[in-house]
Amino acid sequence: MNEKSESQQQHLETFSYDDDVTKLFVTATLIWGAVAMFLGVLVAFQLADWRLNFGIEWLTFGRLRPLHTNAAIFAFAGNGFFAGIYHSMQRLLKCRMFNDTLGRIHFWGWQLIIVCAAITLPMGLSRSKEYAELEWPIGIMITIVWVVFAVNFFGTLFKRREKHIYVAIWFYIATIVTVAVLHIVNSLAIPVSWTKSYSIYAGVQDALVQWWYGHNAVAFFLTTPFLGLMYYFVPKAANRPIYSYRLSIIHFWSLVFLYIWAGPHHLLYSALPEWVQTLGVVFSISLWAPSWGGMINGLLTIRGVWHRLRTDHTLKFLATALTFYGMSTFEGPLLSIKSVNSLAHFTSWIVGHVHSGTIGWNYFMVAGIFYYLIPYLWKTKLYSQKLGHLHFWTATIGLLFYIVSMWVAGVTQGLMWRAIDQTTGMLVYPNFVETVIRIVPMYWIRAFGGVLVLTSFLIMMYNFYKTIQGAPKKVKPEEFQAPALHAQKHEATQGHRKLEGLPAIFSVLVVIAILVGSAIEILPGLLSNHFIEENPDIKPLTALEQAGRDIYTREGCFYCHSQMIRPMPHETMRYGKRSTAAEYVYDHPFQWGSRRTGPDLARIGGKYPNMWHYRHMIDPREMTPGSIMPVYDWLIYREIDFEILPEKLTALRKVGVPYSDEEIQNAVADAKEQAESVSYMLTETGVDASIQDKEIVALIAYLQRLGVDAGESTEFQFTEENLEAEE
Description:
The chain is an all-alpha fold. It has 2 domains: about 15-485 and about 500-520, Cytochrome C Oxidase, Chain A (Up-down Bundle); about 545-725, Cytochrome c-like domain (Cytochrome Bc1 Complex, Chain D, domain 2, Orthogonal Bundle), CATH 1.10.760.10. Helices cover about 65% and strands about 0% of the residues. The chain has 27 helices and 4 strands. A two-stranded antiparallel ribbon has the order 1-4. It has a two-stranded antiparallel sheet with strand order 2-3.
């Protein structure tokens, strides 16, 4: 017996964990979380009162909204789950991370990306694709840093001392491989300069790829990594094993396979092929089962310790996060049902749904994990239990104010938009601004709820700061012992248990699972244009109009205005004939939008004279009383960059827009000539002649083109009658 004991002792290896990298990510999460929530509160107040845009171009809603979403998703949630992954996987695999230096490169590289986003997005440097706005140099940085993370992760798997990989590791694997695929495919673009590029996809194809990415960015950046953390920290906090191992298997594989198909439900009633829309609906509804399977598995793990929820902040936040996860994953498939989607899409209901997930699920999960991690990592006790309780109730009440106000606003919008008088057959609320005025009180309530959520976060930060401040200054790293993997005796296994001991094969199967749905969903649309009816009347934008479109995307106009008319009677009565796929064949990227804070612009061309647009950009309330749109008076002073137009047209030709050599060579001269034509009606009605080379002229040219080629609108022409109308 003594000899056997000595033999086993010789095989033991001594090691410690790299907790310093976890501490770095914890600190970054708290800092960026406060920034993200402050920005969220600011943009919420900007919708309630347009004056809070301050008349400064880099502080407008269109510039700050993408900064808020990127900060919340990639800075706050990203750093949060990186902290949880680095902590949990070392303990699950009984080994230190593969390489400490790679961990530091990952951390500092990710923070550099966030800083670059914080600089470029307020400057208007955006690809105008939701959750993928960052321009191509930053996109390459994301790829490099993600590869560093992946190498460190899979290297750790290779050197592990635990044969079987636990369920949390499964979700981490799915996150790493799927986010890589999503990011690379959706980010493909042709650069014009260091600060400008055009998506290689156009119109319907770009919309399909974007929402395949956008939906699954939520799935595999905000869901799967946090589910992995749930499977580690809920059993740890409850001091109980996960409720059901079999349910975790079903949960993982069904979620990974089904989620990737559901993106098209963001594009229902659009110009997307009907079969793709139906595919998205079917798989979205199917997601109810695996999503609730994960929620049930987590909540039932806490059974028997419910009494601890009153005093244990970790369990309290984790249980509430799982509850909100269940609510949001019920609401998501519900919103994908066509009859519900026809009411809710483009409304504030979607905003409430998104935040019930990002705040209720992600924020509460991070809070619960950090209540466990911070005392553990810094070897101390939580500074204040009372502040923990105050944090929880402030966050919960604030979130409820937010969600309920957006539900009410969304249903109000949807019902007012579709209201048709049964006697006259006319729209009951023909002016879009009537809806805006009606829901402004809900914007104020939403902003108040946001203030409570931000306050709760600051309370948490203070509590953690004081906790860390009171921790011992020097703590000797813990050392652990375990036999190397090759020195262990392993029992014969079969089925899924055997697969858990083969992480390389496991990872390959995950890749196959996500590629099957991706290929069936998007490849037919990318490889064939047979569903796009040809329309010879659709022509590429002129050089000046393209400059105007780039200004439109720079200012984030697509965050409030859609360019997609759905085939419902109230939409065609309000905006014109329904949109078709042929109208968007030269749009790089597409501009269908996901919300209507303002009216749809697909048929705006020729509807108003040039002077109307000019005055509308200077003071929207002069032309539309009650409007909450910011002023854009800097467009009157900023000059059009004519010299870059040939490079822009050249880049667009590379992605399929049929510009001729002559059009590219004459781009500058043609643009100046059209600018002179557009500005003529403005100068004839009293505007200074210097307006001719200003950005507002290019934007007006673009707006006046929208819908003209489709035959619904007519391009506004200068006549004596129109001049009188402008005056």
